Known about the structure:
- This protein has one domain.
- The chain contains five helices and no strands.
- The protein is mainly α.
- The chain has helices at 4-15, 20-27, 32-46, 50-81, 115-126.
- Helix 3 runs antiparallel to helix 4 (50-81).
Amino acid sequence: xxxxxxxxxxxxxxxxxxxxxxxxxxxxxxxxxxxxxxxxxxxxxxxxxxxxxxxxxxxxxxxxxxxxxxxxxxxxxxxxxxxxxxxxxxxxxxxxxxxxxxxxxxxxxxxxxxxxxxxxxxxxxxxxxxxxxxx
Length: 135
């Protein structure tokens, strides 16, 4: 059994030729490869040791393409969210299409159809914390 990050990485490259639009929308939410590349480069800048340089190059070669897909996915997701492209797709992380108001379908995920979440949200909107400023 593969660790989750490795399985996600392999699944991305497996699915990219078959469903590039969906992969781009989904990869915009997964920024681990970009953060790993940046961390490796920062370590290379801060640590003057050949091992840090080797680690930075390995991360750049292995995770660089995935990071580029994530950046391209972020741009595509921004355009999708503004209803400029791919109105027929739904983002698997956001839950709704751009024409549905976005923000995800988290209110209707519960067993009570979102009643508890709606009740808590209404309570928080109706009640305000009293604050006082002491001079």
